[in-house]
Structure formats: structure tokens, C-alpha cells
Amino acid sequence: MTGRMRTALRRFREKWRSYRHRFVPWVVFNLSKNEKTLRRVTEPSEDKVIPDEQVSQSLLGLFRALLRNSGELLLGAHANFTPRFPLHQEQDEGDVLFQTLGFCIERRPSSLAFAGTGVFVTRGFVPKGATVAMYPGTIYQPYEPILLQSIRNPFVFRCIDGVLVDGNDRGISRMVFRSCSGRDRLGPYLTSDASWLTDSPLNPLAVGQYVNNCSNERPANVCYQEYDVPDSFPLELRQYLPNVNYSQHCTQRPLRCVVLVSLRDIRAGEELFSNYYTIVR
């Protein structure tokens, strides 16, 4: 074997060790060896750990604080929107998250060997039943094309009803999200947040795609929960939602989001681990 082939093989092995933690067929093949990584519910409605109203309350509180902190109010129908606090304190988004929800999360190298990037609680305390993160990305209905975007893409999340969320921040997936996000602007209003594609997301919760799968040694401390954005969600706050529909014809149905909810109290320094599979029986 030549030196060039050995180098290529070594790179492939390193890539695979990281990729396999998100590669669906590999995870499925190993389910029998990792029973503790499964989450079981008797019916789809029981997949919700907390009520949607509680998710809305957390998101609205954070988004309002981010809007106040930015000092940027959109013009138009919501010009009379009055903040509760002065608009001159420009803080880091992580500080706003800490002051609003009581904790901070960040992307850092995972504590799992060869798992790549993970998500950690870096400050504060996460109580059980809190909305900890959001899974950003383009929303695809089961009948919509996603073949090209799914190739070598470990960030495609499948909801119980078959809806897919493409949380990849690179390549074709990145271009598709930017295109759809720009398409859905309502005049001066942004209806989604594309900053999750960068290293500095305006919504500090929008890092859920980097939460790694749990193991027998590292049990899950968060789980995924599907959340449909209600029609009453304020227009001026939708600019912080890190999701957008692939098709423009999906405006008749609520925007699908996926949040991560804490299964127990989580302290600063802990990495977030979730169940990639929920089995409905």
C-alpha cells in the first residue's frame, strides 16, 4: 500500500468515526446493542415531554429579550410594539440567554471520542422540562425532494409524521435554506433566522443539530420534541426562528420546529445527549 493510499484510508477512518454517530443506518444497526439509547412511547401524542404552550413561553421570552437587546424594531404593522426595557444594552446573545432562561449552551468538541462537535451547558442551571435548544434547518414534507441534499448528510432529522428537517449548515443544504429564507420575507419582515449557518447565531438555542446521540455509558439528558409554531406567534419575533419551509405552498400549515427538552436537571459543564430514536408502540 502506497503512502498516499494509507493517508486516504486514515482520513476515511477519522471521518467515519465522527460521522457514524449521526449516520442513521449505523445507529439502527447498533440499536440492539444500545437499548438504553431508545425512547419508547405508546402513541405519538405522548412524545411531548412538556406542553407546546410551555415551549412557546420560553421561546417568546427569549426572542423578546433578543429583540430588545438588538434595539432594532421592524417598521410596519407592528411599529407600535413597545419593549419592556430600554433598547440600549447591547449584550452578547449568550448573556441574553442566561438572563432570560438561566443557562448558556455552546458548541464545543464532544467528550465522546471521535464524535466531533457537541453541545455543552457552559453556564447556569437547566431545570428538568426546560427548552434547551432548537434543531435548525429546512423543513421538508414527506413528498418533497431531498435526495441531493441528503447525500453524505448526517443532519437530516425525521419527525414521527415523516416530516424532515435538514440541519446541515454546509453545501447544498446551506444554499437551499438561504434561498427559502430570502423568498419568505414579508416586506421588511424577516420570517426566519439564517444566522445559524454561521459561527455566531443570533438565536443562541439554534445549535441542536450538534447534540450527539446518547450511549449506555452516557444516557440521554434531553430529548427531541416536535413543535408547530402557532399562528398567534408575533410576526416581529419570527426573525429568530431557525426553520423555513422548503415549499412556498406550505404556508397553510403551521411551521414545524423541533426543540430539545431536558429530561432531568443539567448543570454547567455537562454535555447534552439525546435519543435519536423514539419508538411508538
Automatic annotation (TrEMBL):
Annotated ranges, domain SET: 103-277
Superkingdom: Eukaryota
CDD domains assigned to the protein according to its UniProt record, in alphabetical order: SET_SETD9
InterPro entries reported in the protein's UniProt record: SET_dom, SET_dom_sf, SETD9
Name of the protein in question: SET domain-containing protein
Organism name: Poecilia mexicana
Taxonomic lineage of the native organism: Eukaryota, Metazoa, Chordata, Craniata, Vertebrata
